[in-house]
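Q: Got a minute? One more chain.
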Amino acid sequence: MITRVPPLNNGEGTSCADFGLSTSMTYDIAWQALHLQAPERVGHTEYCSHPLLVKHVTGIDPREDGSGWRSFYDAVGIDLIWNANDGPSWIGRKTNMGHAEFQEGGTDYDSNINCPFKNAEEVLSFDPVEEYRLPDIREQSAFFERAYQDGQKEFPDQIFTGGYYKTIFSACIRVFGWDMFLSSAAADYERFDRVLEGFFRLSMANYEAWALTSAPVFICHDDIVWTSGAVFHPDWYRRYVFPRYKKLWRVLKDAGKIVLFCSDGNFTEFIDDIADAGADGFIFEPLTDLDLIAKKYGKTKAIIGNADTRILTFGTKEQIKTEVERCMAIGKPCPGFLMAVGNHIPHNVPIENALYYFDLVREMGKR
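A: Always. Here it is, folded:
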């Protein structure tokens, strides 16, 4: 059972051995799962922003000492670190949509909301390549390689992924904001396609740069849906988005990379499209149908998800156990399954609930 563990005297944090885990195995667990080799236990990853949980487990406050994250990931048996890096920030016009309070203490709260685009015509006339310029692929690749090597060194016992965040859909959200994005795209699909092509070209340059790195695993992030499902008619995605994914992912796959697709919301209706475009696996929230994915792609794709953080936050121990049992019953027979809370472990999850969840994952994940 996970309890608070004081840091080691050498200041390097706790060891997996304190919890009956082998750090030499965690990287291998993820590697085997992503290669559909059914490791001895279910793989495990988490997206966590809960510093008090980290401090409770390791004795290290990660806000004061970043090594606390490594000790925490080792302690709770994390095998893969979710990472994406888009390189240096674009210099040019971008919308600021503000941000609600999410992190502890409201450090991420942003009331500044502004959009430099005043109407649909300005959006439809926008050229992303002209605005932001294509990066030099060799220079960008060197930047990504350094970032990957630094990350893998920081977390040597986990797979540290490469990845790109604002691929196409998320690029539109970032630059235009939701209002101007949706109203402008709907105003003229064909003209907006030229805007999408510009974002695609920027992404392609960065994907080509990532393809030149030594990172073996790549996460394509693109928030293409809402909690209710598709934002546009499905035909829109099939005409304007998924064919571009196929071209982007081909560059990575030709370089020997494993490509994992990640989106918030519910993209159940697009699972086949994403698989057909070449994704080697799916990372998803609890709204996307784990059972359907397991039945259709459980033997051929990596599957990462999809416990519900709402249950960890507000549920009883019995409800948490039922949720882990649900995920394990569906995912454990799949050789490429990695367990995760699909929509994050934020700071308001009760520590005792998180610890209980980790214990359940460890016990139920044994094969």
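A: The chain has a mean pLDDT of 92.
Q: Perfect, thanks.
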